[in-house]
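In response to reviewer comment 3 from the previous cycle, which asked for concrete evidence that the modeling workflow produces usable outputs, we include below a single protein chain processed end to end. The sequence was submitted unchanged, and the resulting structure tokens are shown without manual editing.
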Amino acid sequence: MAALGWLTPRRRPATARSVLAGEAAAEAAQKTALIAEAEELSVTPAELREPAFPVAGDTRAAAFFDLDNTVMQGAAIFHFGRGLYKRKFFQRRELTRFAWQQAWFRLAGVEDPEHMQDARDSALSIVKGHQVSELMAIGEEIYDEYMADRIWPGTRALAQAHLDAGQKVWLVTAAPVETATIIARRLGLTGALGTVAESVDGVYTGRLVGEPLHGPAKAEAVRALAVAEGLDLERCAAYSDSHNDIPMLSLVGHPYAINPDSKLRKHARSLDWRLRDYRTGRKAAKVGIPAAAGVGALAGGTAAAVALHRRRR
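The workflow returned the following structure tokens.
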């Protein structure tokens, strides 16, 4: 039997080198499996390593979503303007301006302060003297006509994940609070923070209460809501496409750059913020949006603006 001793495994103490070799082999095997799983799911290995988020049952956490180009393609106020034009609230020249601004917004993917201010001023002058209840009813119709099909499925899924975890989800936008509230309710979200237009006895005066909810004002609104709701901002998440919302994104422990403009993309990468882009072909395929459809919609919006401009001339 002694001659067969070499066939019997011998118990030898592990040396430092053998321990290192074993750990390296295990790490390589785990990495290979992670890469294979990531390729199967069309995500990055880093996304698979992220801990489960949002945390189910964490009611001291909430999510705050910008609206324009984050939850919805384009700007809500422009879509609202189209609906009001259809209902004879203003003339073709105002629609031409709305169309050009919307085409620019979709091409550039960023907010232009001058365009946004012009759109707000136009909207305020248009609704002046109208009943708040009237505009709310019309807003419901406009959502179905122009907004429902422009919700980004990927962002909608992110919001639903927070809702499924038992957390509140708020829109935070410079759009009129009435429009934002309609969109939030239609998407099953908790509510909305938006720009407040002054009304007296239920009639719009044509003035704002304070200033538009934009940039730093959004951060202040989120901070105030967090205090009122007893939220821990370090456990909250915020989502936006615009560098103008960096103050809001910086407030929370889980900032997301969604369809980011170039400045926000650069900022997000420098701070290792999570990033999602649903505009590209790869991401569009993941959320079920044909890339060609996005190109067609963009071309259609630009063509419409050009056609209106030619008619005006």
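The CA atoms of residues 82 and 206 lie 19 Å apart. We consider this sufficient to address the reviewer's concern, and the full set will be provided in the supplementary archive.
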